[in-house]
Amino acid sequence: MRFFVDVHAHTIASTHAYSTLHDYLAVAKAKGIKLFAITDHGPDMADAPHFWHFVNMRVWPRVIDGIGVLRGIEANIKNVDGEIDFFGDYLRELDIVLAGFHEPVFPPSTKEAHTNALINCIESGDVDIISHPGNPAYPIDIKRVAKAAAKHHVALEINNSSFLTSRKGSIHNCTEIVNAVKEAGGLLVMGSDSHIAFSLGEFDKAVELIQTVDFPIERILNRSPEALLSFLSARGHKALDDYSLLVE
Q1: Residue-wise over 84-120: b if at least 16 C-beta within 10 A, else e?
Q2: Which CATH number does the domain housing residue 233 bear?
Q3: Considering the entire predicted model, what is its pTM?
């Protein structure tokens, strides 16, 4: 099972990452990746890019040498109210919005607080994908979150990096998440969470988990550029016609 769409990658604008947009394009070309998103950390992270970095993504071409590049952000969930560190009309200018917990912005608290924060974030309508919800540092009521995500047409991410270099111990929670999303009728997406271009499009561990649970392929947004773009369009993102040549 091969997937040629990636929704989660960081550039040197997040200064604990090590690749440029040009680096990612070269790797995407070599691997046959058709569409990927650059989702640098939201500005409340200590070493994240400035707010204007995301505003000025409008200068990027959306298709470069036949490869689609989505203008995105991995925003930080700031509090139990589910607020994130990017807002208003600026969100509408992005093609894709991820949001998740990061210790420097929202220190781990209680299961109830984490759950309420995620559900409030989902219900806000501002976020398309919840990033790495299986993080064991942030226990949640998985079934409640999966039901809320399905109801509000928000995808939950199975983060491949969580099984390799970060958030070790995520496998149990992620297995429960895949089962809960399957039962709730919701959507999953796999993200490499690349902090260096070489790992773009690498989902081996995430694919193993999804296959083990026998999750329906038609509810995995990575299955094609068309699937992801249709999801984003349904969530109100504009200007996606620029990617039409990627849709078979």
Answers
A1: bbbeeeebebbbbbbbbbbeebbeeeeeeebbbbbbb
A2: 3.20.20.140
A3: 0.97
